[in-house]
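Risk register update: the risk of archive-format incompatibility is retired. Evidence:
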Amino acid sequence: MNTNQLELQVASRWPAAAVRGVATSGMLAASGVTNKILTAATRDGVIVRLHRGAYIQAGQWAALSPWVRDDVTLIGHVMAAHSAGVYSHSSAARLLGFRTWGCGPTVHLTHPYPPGTSGRSLAVAMHRQGLDAGQVVMVRVGPLRVPVTAAAQTVLDCARLFDLERAVIIGDHAARNGVTMGELGELLDASGIKRGAARARTLLERLDPHSESAGESRTRVFLTATGLPLPELQLEIPTRHGTHRVDFAWRRYRLILEFDGWGKYFDYRPTDVAIAKERQREKDLMELGWRFIRITWADLDDPVALEQRVHDALLRAGAALPIRRTALFA
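Archived output:
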């Protein structure tokens, strides 16, 4: 059987119950994908093996963005591993629906006792921590219900493990979905875990539920680190064509900073309509004397150059700033 025939056979028999395209070996066998076909399809690159017993069609896998692949890899583990642990850290954040960025495909599991090494994979990180009943919730993944650390516990675990940028992105989204600073503070105070506690307290000082995207969260972390005057988030500005909301604004200097993730313009309306509306919005604000700084993901990856851009824009807008630049970016 050649590769084309194999692709057609696999596609025609792929289980309708697959979750985000992921099927287990048991699901495949029940739908007519025999072990012989599965072995050949995996060998010839028609099927991608995500974890032992979890698969996705190669064409669908190739079409996924890297961050969606991380989500799908986790789904594969959930469906096939039947782990005795609790999904935690960035894995819990994903299963709870929180935004993540840069956390990688590693699956995180927490156990109350030292987990055994049998069958352990480099793709799975094991953590030891006792969890009370209130620190665990059940989340549905396809036909399964799996244990996941509760939202507040997940935020603190991520703060202990990841750097500030990654932790703030998760924490901001959790705060936007109802997790309070009081709840996080009480949980942190009650925890006996000392390692990473200082990082977690720093996180609590930096969270903001007004952040609407991972890019905005990263931008806010960057701006705080520069020591420059901090802008307001999600400021609403009345114009002759209605009220426009902007990502960041220095009201005193009529300066706007927008993070252009592009998805916010194109996800919910046709491209030409989105571009026309955005141009009108910018014209309305410029008529009132507002100036713009527009940044992208690539700009955030070069903080030295970006700090200079923001510094210079504030100077042009009339801000009185020290000559010496922030030591962090000097």
